[in-house]
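Suppose a colleague, Dr. K., hands you the sequence of a protein chain of 354 amino acids and asks what its three-dimensional shape might be. Before reaching for any lab equipment, you can write down a predicted structure in token form. Begin with the sequence itself:
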Amino acid sequence: MRNAALWGSTLAVGFIGGLAFALLGLPLPWILGAAFSVMLVNTLRPGRAVWPRWLSDAGVVVIGLMLGQRITLDTLLAMARDLPGMIAAGVLWIAVCYMIGIGFAKLARLSEMNAVLGCVPGGLPQMVLLAEEMKGADPGTVALMQTSRLVVVLYTVPFLAAFFTNASAVPAAEAARAAEAARAAAAGAVAAWPPLYGYLMLPLVPLSAWLARRLGLPAGEFLGPIAFVGALSAAGAVFPVVPDPLMAAAQLSMGIYIGLRIQPRVVFANRRFGPLAFAVAALLVAISIAAAWVLSLVTGDSVVTWFFVACARRARRGGGNRPAAARRRGAGNRIPAVSARQRLHMKTEDLVKA
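The predicted structure, expressed as tokens, is then:
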């Protein structure tokens, strides 16, 4: 009974934080707002905030379901076409982040494990999950570093992407026609299954998360649903759309879990940590710009396409890699290519770190 009361009070604290961030128009309110409020309560009143791991895993499964629905045949074709370059870019990016992480560890006097996990742009929830599973890693420190990177990305990438889009030489109308033709070809290649099948297969989504964890996959509760739902979606299955309230609840659950693992004492005890974390985040964005320019010259794609891939930009709804801002830009953006490359980028990181 006491645990249930603590869960309820922790949920209320997380909800208030998420709602406050949402009303203020801050990014990812139900993750960052919940994490901030729970972290604050846990710091001032240790032991008063409690949240079970299975509730966080349930939220991750919902996010995985949403991302898996975005995988189409066009996405898979884009991955197959650019597979060698995508793998090379992913491995190179991991190597660069690893070297930056080693330097950060020495300057900030952190463990190399925490520094590297904090520098690799694999997504805040996913990197915290990985830190939970890796010996010697502190999820709270990783969460702080990933949050600083997330803040820098959210407030710089949209403006930089707009700049690159305006500077692109690819006509917007031509790019839009090409993208529309590709989507039409992919839509005609598979016949959609009856919607009832998607509802019948929903119970298998959490089962795929459980199976992925049993197989020892890193962040299995996340990769399992993405792989399962993505494969069926590409084959023509139509899963029910995740409602916004359910997505907000999933992010809230994940945010609460992250907040419990953040220890502000790291920042107060190590005065170098905060400034260096933001400096590293800015450095990673600068490297992304250079890498996007080089890759655009090699592949012929636009700079902004590769820029979104390199930054692994988080979508507005959070927890995912859906290129929402790319969808709103015009010139030269290939949305399926961005989506495909980001997904392979994320899976390559997980496999290398495993």
